[in-house]
Amino acid sequence: MGRFNQALLGKQAWRIWSRPESLVARVLQGRYFARSSFLDCGTGTRPSFAWRNIIHGWELLKKDLSKEDSIRWSFTKDGTYSTRSGYQFTDALLEFQSQHNQALPPIEKKLWSNIWKIKAPPKIKHFIWRSLAGALAVKERLQTRGIPIDATCLGCGAASESICHVLFHCDKSRQTWELSNVPLPPAGFSRNSVFLNMLHLISVMNNNRLEQKILPPRQIVTLAFDEAEIWIAANSLQAETEQVSSAKAWSKPPVGAFKCNLGTSWINAQSKCGVSWILRDSQGNIISHSRRSYSAVRSKHEASLRALFWAVESMKNMRQNNIIFEVLLFPRPSPNLNWIVAQINALLEHIEFWRLDHVVEERNEAANLIAKSVTTRRKYHSYIASQDPAWLQSLLILEGQSQ
Ligand SMILES: [Zn+2]
Fold it and tell me: Helix 106-114 and helix 217-237: axis angle, to 10°?
């Protein structure tokens, strides 16, 4: 719910920003940011409740807009910010990535990728993901984002409202857990580690032991604690990994997500145009890659949409989820290209989590080279392959070593 509100507020902020001539934008500007731009304004001296909320929404949006070269662009027909896609693949991923840039211990990696295997509706998986990434709108989190509120939990008034407290320790949650038939850890839930608690719950859920009763709860608990011990051991041994500067290189997606880089090469409507995609996991391993050539493509925006169509269709056919698509050029919406947009939207319905990001050329080199092989080396045959393209191997190794 909190997240949904944030998405709505983001939309409100977007409206003001993108339509400065609108009445609501002008009223707010006169009152709150007459002498500064919307980007810089604070909450003013006596901000109204609505304005504070809009500022909060704007903070979230601005964070996205300014995040290096990554701009969230929702795939709506008119190219405006959409609540639905803002909600679909939240910035939890990026937030998590920035906190955990170092290599994760194996057990933690396993947990992150296991989230997607839980037999539960996407909503539940998404919720677990966000609770682990620290991206739920509890008071303590809002406070660390600079929102001036009292962090005391309204449920019990006895503790600060953290994610761990709300989910596991607040009076009502404790009662709920007691009444549920979920086997609890014998020593109770951890006081401060959402990770350990989720590890326990996920191992219970993934093994589906509640329904099948294959193992008695005691054994599940033992298993969970074994795993927790391994995690603690792995964590304390974790070496300081050296951070490679990655400003100008391809960057790895977070654990559990995949990155699909798109390439486009277009010269003019008479020449063949090339599109490509490369799908890589969080280790930088190539899952698969593809090239396709098209004739009679009228503009580079159309080429960019063709590339996106081809990539999304391939991902759907491969039943691939959790994808960050990276494109060089955001296709400009135009009425005569709406038919492709509609097709892409229909295909995206089949992908559980996705996001579309803008990427600069230096971060997209391998995909660009594959697309250019159509226009510069006349490689017209289309393919999808899972083996590394031999002629790009050294580049791909280099890209795989970056963050
Ligand atoms: Zn409480």
Answer: 130
Question: 191 C-alpha to center of ligand 1: Å?
Answer: 13
> pTM score, two decimals?
0.45
User: Per-residue pLDDT tens for 265-314?
Assistant: 999 888 889 999 999 998 888 899 999 999 889 988 889 889 999 999 99
Give residue for tokens 């050029």.
329
Q: How close is the Cα of 186 to the center of ligand 1, in Å?
A: 22
User: Would 73 be classed as within a structural domain?
Assistant: no
Sheet harboring 323-327: ordered strands across?
A: 354-358, 323-327, 258-265, 273-280, 286-294, 383-385
Q: In terms of domains, do 272 and 338 share one?
A: yes
Residue 343 resides in a domain: yes
Cα 184 to ligand 1 centre (Å): 19
Distance 175 CA to ligand 1 centre (A): 12
* Cα 176 to ligand 1 centroid, rounded to whole Å: 13
Report how many domains make up the chain.
3
| Same domain as 379, residue 271 | yes
Instruction: Please indicate, yes or no, whether residues 117 and 229 belong to a single structural domain of this protein.
Output: yes
Q: Does residue 297 sit within a domain?
A: yes
